Each structure stands twice: as structure tokens, then as C-alpha cells.
Amino acid sequence: MLILAAAELRLSTPLEIVLVLSLMALLPAAIASLTPFLRITLVLHFLRQALGTQTAPSNPVLLGLGVFLTMLVMQPVARELQAKAIQPYTRNELTLVQAMQAARDPMHAFLLRFAREKDIQLFLELTKTAPPKRPQDVELVVLMPAYVLSEMRTGFQIGAVLFLPFLIIDLVVASVTLSIGMVQLPPVMVAAPFKILLFVLVDGWNLVIGSLVRSFNG
Description:
Layout: H1 2-7, H2 13-33, H3 37-51, H4 59-73, H5 75-90, H6 96-114, H7 117-126, H8 140-179, H9 187-201, H10 204-215
Helix pairs in contact: 3-4, 3-8, 5-6, 6-8, 7-8, 8-9
């Protein structure tokens, strides 16, 4: 009731500026944890570790790729936010509070789509909240951490699958180098060119990025 009452009030300009600046301060954390950026960067990090290239691609390149892929995946949500919240607010058709409420539905639908029921149930129990009658009634305070937990689980699952073929190469190379007595040469150095060659031959970047983006459209 308090939120509905506040929505009918138009905040003064200084208060709106303070609220917008506060939201802007939280924006980096929201982008990093409440968008596909979380899953994408996790998978790219695991891929680099599996290849054994350490710093290639560099962190700025991986983060930049993560940002651009996130923008690609979030386009439908961004268009809906633009139409329902941002444009009406800039035309003074909605107050800031009303615009924030209008922006809730697109983000809520996106988070609910990828949050596991088990993780939602966990945070319902932790917050001692009664189970909602409909999925659309799940509060954002419950849905947001559930989404983060679900995305981390998914990212680790994909990372584990990516590791397997490269782990086999590591094991084969280690067995061969030990059997022929090449103790002085680390197996990692010998395996690295073979892993990179395999990744290039199967067009690995195309496969990984394509699968990542499709995982959000399925």
C-alpha cells in the first residue's frame, strides 16, 4: 500500500536526482549479476583455464565480449523497458516511482525464466516468505539471488563440460611424456599447442559463443 501511495506522488527534482544517482551506483553490480553477463563471463573464464593460455585472451577482451553478448541477449528486454518505462518517464507521463514499477515486469519475467524453482524455494525459506500462488507473484528480493545462484550453477556446468576434452589431452600428453622419460619438460607446455590446435580446428569460438547465446533463447 505504501508503494502504491508513493507511486501517486511526484518526487521533487533533487530527490529524483539523488534516487537516480543511487540507482546508477548499483548499475554495475546489477549488470554483472542480474544479466547473462554472469553466465557468459563464467564460461569464458573456464574456457581460458581449460585451454591453459592463462592471459590470452586478456581480461579486458573477455569482459568486453561478455558486455557485447549481454547487450545482444538483452535486446528484447531493453526494448520493452524503453517502451514501458523510459519513454513514458521522459515524456513526464509517469513519475520516477511509477516508471520503476513499470520496469519491474520485463526484468521479473527475464529473471523468472532462468531462476530454478529449487533456488527460489531456498530463498523463500531463508526470508520466511510464504510461497506465492503464481510464479509472477515472486518478490524481486527473492528472485534476484535465486537467479544469481541458478546462473552460477549453469555456468559451472558448462565449464565442466568444456574442461573434459582438454583434460583428456592433458592426460594423454602427461602419460606419453612420462613414458618416454621427458621428466624435465612440463606436460602443460607440450599439451598447450595441441589444445589450441584442436580448439581452432573445430572452430571453438563459434561453437562456444553460439551455444552460449542460444542457451538464453531456448
